[in-house]
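Batch manifest, entry 17 of 40.
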Amino acid sequence: MNKIIIITAPSGSGKTTIVRQLLQRHAGSLGFSISACTRQPRPGEVHGKDYYFLSETDFKQKIEADAFIEWEMVYTGKYYGTLRSEVDRIWSEDKAPLVDIDVLGALNIKAQYGEKAISLFIQAPSIEELRRRLSARGTETPETLQERLDKAAYELSFADRFDRIIVNDNLENAIEETMAVISNFLQKDVLV
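Output type: structure tokens
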């Protein structure tokens, strides 16, 4: 049975930490779905490990060839997407793809795969806590902090469209709850 795990969250909710723990603890049953993008690699990022870095031309050719299960232009000229071949690669390893993706991409995948996919929305306990976490990173200017908080408020408006909302008010509890939800989903039979 080919199933997909979809995880999304506003920036600062702890999604990346939770995803890393899931992949460590469930290495035998989950495979990380590497996204494709048209942006330049950041220092230390590796093609085929962090992202599939594609030119805009290559990305558009893949769109035309229906090579993506979802894609979007996030910023002008900056495309991101989930390759069908990446999901198939993970399924061929008898694992469930774990897709770490933005809110709209997550909803697109869930709409396509229905009961074969579970969609999880990770959120901080409050916008105030989100502000504190983002500020503590020390990487935000007042403007970028406000942009992230505005985007988070927008993304939170979609939370009720996900199969499960995990409130990350305690990281270890959020990891355990997420793992339990995924384990139950992977064990459940789904009619094809």
